[in-house]
Write a structure and sequence with these properties.
- The strands form eight sheets. Strands 3-5-4-10-6 form a five-stranded mixed sheet, with no helix packed on it. A four-stranded antiparallel sheet has the order 2-11-7-9.
- The relative contact order is 0.10.
- With 475 residues, it is of the alpha+beta class.
- The protein is elongated.
- Helices cover 38% and strands 18% of the residues.
Length: 475
Amino acid sequence: MSSDWPLVQLVDLISIKHGFAFKGEFFSDTSTDTVLVTPGNFAIGGGFKADKLKFYSGPVPAGYKLKADDLIVTMTDLSKQADTLGYSALVPEHSGRLYLHNQRIGLVEIKSQELDKLYLYFLMRSREYRHHVVSSATGSTVKHTSPSKIMSFEFRLPPLETQKNIGRALKLLEERAEISHKINLTLEQMAQAIFKSWFVDFEPVKAKIAALEAGGSEEDALLAAMQAVSSKEEAQLTRMKTDQPEQYTELRATAELFPSAMQDSELGEVPEGWNPGTLHDVAKFPNERISTEHLGPDSYVSTENMLENKRGISTASSLPSSTSVPAFEPGQILISNIRPYFKKIWLANIQGGRSPDVLGFKCKHDHTTEFLFNLLYQDQFFDYMMLTSKGAKMPRGDKKAIMQFVCTLPPIKLMQRFSDRIKPFYTLSNSNNTESKLLEATREALLPKLLSGELSIPEAKTCMPPALAPAREEN
């Protein structure tokens, strides 16, 4: 029982080392092998966030290089709600990178053999710890804490073996959610690679041209395009013709949609028959509205809960006070119109409502959703939004200008074929997101019960999602 656990303070178990004040003149957003860890690398709720890294190119003093799996905490938070103040994170595997211990970041050093680091990692994400840190923070706009304030946190310490079991159980949930996230990143990269091959680099067209210039027949050119479309060798296509005749026929039909010549245009050389057009030719702004009484945190999207760098959305922290807002439907693309350089975009898979500062895009042609999403996903589009935006302090996209974004338009059938090809990627991605939310919700529900002793590890395992059943059997 937790009442039998001794009451202790962190000061008796750990020390916290301040980081170094690295010089701003060496900071950069350009990727290098040296990463400066900042409060921006902490996720709300705890954990390391690697999507917004700050890089460093200056001298590094001894003693301020972080090791993989080091436990760190935030000492400063710029948000009004102190969203990440005092939360913990583990330094990720380096993968050739050097992570630096920056100022405003505390490095936790465990000085007692009675405390497990993984247990502490989750303890520093608990509601009680969070309340202790935030309630003792100083500052109005910028919130600060200190090692002494963090280390004054008092709690009941379970036996070491219990700590280890709790840490492992909670980490298992976290790792499974991270795996789903990594799979989704791979799926997105695959979709973008196919889009680039077909509609930017025109590889199937160029494969046909090369085959014809080498003296090949039209059939040879078609086979070359099939290889470019599928990334398969000729021998693999031969086997596919026998073993998977339906897929082979579909692949052949796709390759036939690509021409075997290029033509000059105002955008440079493009495939024959493809013409320069604008976003207005393939998309429109929907104007439906939805009553806010039908919305909840999971179905309302504002620029605040859209994630930077094309990472979709999170749960809304607040709902609008107005009686109705613009609506969105599954298959529409949402983009934050405020500060386009943050590149906030999401392909909706549910019905809901959005802030007026979030633009909705709807396809003009049936079954072209994935084509439109990948077109808007391009950095080139966000650069154009910034170039034509209004306002200096808070750039806002110009809706009229946005629809004049110039792009090369392939035949509608090819847009549809591309969408059919990658639609399963987004179906799997949505399934992974659902699983990740379930895993995160399970972790959040188990965290206070395990830390307080209200729930034992055997009892906690019965609460875990079915996806973790194999891991439970192994243990």
